[in-house]
Amino acid sequence: MDVSRPYSAVCPTLDGDVLKVLAGTTMALTGRQVALLTGRKSHSGVLAVLNRLTEHGLVSRIELNHAYLFALNRDHLAAPAVEILVGMRKALFEEIRNVIDDWSITPVHASLFGSAARGDGDTQSDFDLLVVRPDSVDEDESAWRSQIEDLVDLVRRRTGNQVSVIERDKSGMERLREAEPPILSELLANAIVFSGSRSQLTDMLEAV
């Protein structure tokens, strides 16, 4: 999965970027505003997509003061599919969070970091996870290992991407800091927290 544009697995063209913008707001936007929000320089290309989607009824076009405004027609039969596509990243993160919440051995902390967290990777990007286990749990504990392996398998099946897990007990975070300072910078700047809290993560990274 392209971690920066997950919907491109199904809609890889400019249409996907346009629909992402329209699905992300209830406001009607001008073609120029849509082009700006897609990050595309070609206003004419975006306008062509908007006009085509309007012909299909998926986008509503409103004339106002001699200009046209565009909005996603949420009553259209295809609108729920669009919202699912553009919401895949959020849905995946929520599923991961729920899976970890159901673990029989609760982690001290679990976070996503790297390009998947920043949202600027591609289909070759790994999903980088930091999982901190309780000091009282051995890394070879079968129930703990099963939880980690099942999570890795879930993310692979959901995305097609490789998953990289950095696993430490709480006392082992000091060695992580000494060996991998770039990882700590990534975590402090961009971590998406699945278990525990951001303040807890900051405390662990800065206190070790």
Write the layout of secondary structure elements.
Blueprint: H1 14-23, E1 29-30, H2 31-38, H3 43-55, E2 59-64, E3 67-72, H4 79-86, H5 88-101, E4 109-113, H6 115-118, E5 127-133, H7 142-159, E6 163-169, H8 173-179, H9 181-190, E7 192-195, H10 198-207
Parallel strand pairs: 5-6
Antiparallel strand pairs: 1-3, 2-3, 4-5, 4-7
Written overview of the protein:
49% of the residues lie in helices and 18% in strands. Helix 7 links the parallel strand 5 and strand 6. With 208 residues, the protein is an alpha+beta fold. It is built from 10 helices and 7 strands. It has 2 domains: 80 residues, Winged helix-like DNA-binding domain superfamily/Winged helix DNA-binding domain (Arc Repressor Mutant, subunit A), CATH 1.10.10.10; 120 residues, Beta Polymerase, domain 2. A 4-stranded mixed sheet has the order 6-5-4-7, with helices on both faces. A 3-stranded antiparallel sheet has the order 1-3-2.
